[in-house]
Design brief:
By secondary structure, this protein is of the alpha/beta class. It is about 35% helix and about 15% strand. The longest helix is centred in the first third of the chain and has 16 residues.
Length: about 260
């Protein structure tokens, strides 16, 4: 299934993809599992305002109804990300990729396959191999006919902020993500571009140890930032402005 597929339900308000024509440096911005572009819009808007070209895709099955996501998996999401990258790279001299959570998984997946990527920004990225017992539990739940687990969205410290993520986590797509993260382990040492790692001190979805794992495994130079006031969905949380400022600075340095 691709962006705009007629088999998908209506796109949620604010969950639309966004493409901004700016300067010669582009940034591909990727949302997370069960989320949608609204989660990353503050960062995308800040990058666009700073003069960069921006591509903010809505990943297949996301931003509509959870039933649409049931029919998708990591292959659909990574395929859409690669296509978005190719389109952005076709009109820019350099491209940086930034992602939150599963968006960070996809960012690393892409950087390992596209060595020309100028740099990556990983925000609470899911990159550590999952617990085999948890993966087996998901397989057993699927075998028993279960399709949906409780949602993981809106882990935000700011009481006035909310993420428009799906209320449930589809088990089949989740299994495909876990398997992709397992396969990603061999890819991480192939990432040689500069890496900006932003990590919430408190995260109830992706343990902060994932950021340590990423920093230790990649081959490129690593810059690290701790987000002291935010939880998992930091792009909508108290530190969203710092994330934007740090990312703009990081991308700006790579532009020269």
């Amino acid at each position: 299934m691709s962006e705009g597929s007629p088999s998908e339900g209506p796109v949620l308000p604010g969950a639309e993809a966004r493409s901004v024509a700016g300067g010669p440096v582009g940034v591909l911005v990727l949302h997370g599992f069960t989320g949608n572009p609204a989660t990353m819009r503050p960062l995308a808007d800040a990058l666009a305002a700073a003069g960069f070209s921006v591509e903010l895709p809505r990943l297949p099955g996301h931003g509509t109804v959870v039933e649409d996501m049931m029919r998708t998996g990591f292959g659909d999401w990574s395929g859409a990300v690669d296509a978005a990258y190719v389109a952005l790279a076709g009109r820019c001299e350099r491209v940086v990729v930034a992602g939150l959570s599963m968006g960070g998984t996809l960012t690393c997946w892409l950087a390992a396959r596209r060595p020309e990527v100028a740099g990556i920004v990983c925000i609470n990225a899911l990159v550590e191999a999952p617990d085999p017992a948890m993966v087996e539990m998901v397989r057993q739940m699927l075998a028993a006919g279960e399709t949906l687990a409780p949602g993981v969205g809106s882990d935000i410290a700011d009481p006035d902020a909310r993420e428009s993520a799906y209320p449930g986590s589809p088990l089949g797509p989740a299994l495909s993500l876990y398997e992709a993260v397992e396969a990603l382990q061999d890819d991480l040492p192939r990432i040689s571009c500069p890496v900006l790692v932003l990590t919430s001190a408190v995260d109830h979805v992706v343990p902060p140890s994932n950021s340590d794992h990423l920093a230790e495994r990649v081959a490129g130079p690593v810059e690290r930032v701790t987000l002291a006031r935010s939880w998992h969905v930091a792009t909508l949380d108290h530190d969203k402005d710092e994330i934007a400022a740090r990312t703009i600075d990081f991308v700006g340095k790579l532009a020269h």
